[in-house]
Amino acid sequence: MAVDIFQIELGFDQCYVLKSDGVIAVDAGAPNKGRNFLRGLERASINPQEVQLIVITHGHWDHVGSAGELKAITGAKLAMHRREVNWLEQSLTLLPPGITLWGRIFISLHKKFMPLINIPPAKVDVALDDEGLSLSDYGIPGRILHTPGHSSGSVSVLLETGEAFVGDLAMNSFPLRFSPGLPIFAEDQAAVIESWRSLLDKGATTVYPAHGKPFPAEVIRKAIS
Questions:
Q1: Of the four, 59, 140, 166, 184, which is 20 to 30 A from 150 by CA?
Q2: 2, burial (CB in 10 Å: exposed 0-12, middle 13-18, buried 19+)
Q3: Where are the extended beta strands (E) located within the chain?
Q4: What's the farthest any 2 CA atoms get from each other in the chain?
Q5: Global pTM?
Q6: Rounded CA gap, 214 and 154, in Å?
């Protein structure tokens, strides 16, 4: 079953819209990006009401900021890991620690701007557990997998054909990274590596990060070996 993949820029990062027998979106971008999402759907010739599920890879502000707006536009269900449901429902703006020198500097600078960021709360419809969720009921040949490390409730979408939509489990754009690789900030670096081993063992071949362009999963395999 083929899956068409559409990338839509939603501020500091992007979301992906996956279309097969059904349509889902992965991540909801920064706040106030509903119009960007609608324009992206229009370019992809997708009616907003076709989107059945919005998968939030984790609860940081640039991934949940427009969740409520996208839910209202599409009527889709919101899904995220139960460990981070309250981040969205209570408008929490938490940040992970840096695990590289630049990561630590970036986070320290980022904290100065956090008081300016407002995340509208939204109700989560599907609270994921560690077992993840098959996407077959949504017409997508793949699964949501619990992939902790960047945050304890981080999840990824892995298609049967090997495309992995990983949120911030990998990065590939300036000013975060100059080349594709592991995240520069994470709650648990060892868990990041274990999550990647699991994704690779399950057949991940192409990485679709929330920040930057897709790249071969072999880059990550070499980084963790």
A1: 140
A2: exposed
A3: 4-9, 14-19, 23-26, 51-55, 77-81, 126-128, 133-134, 142-146, 155-159, 163-167, 206-209, 215-216
A4: 46
A5: 0.96
A6: 19
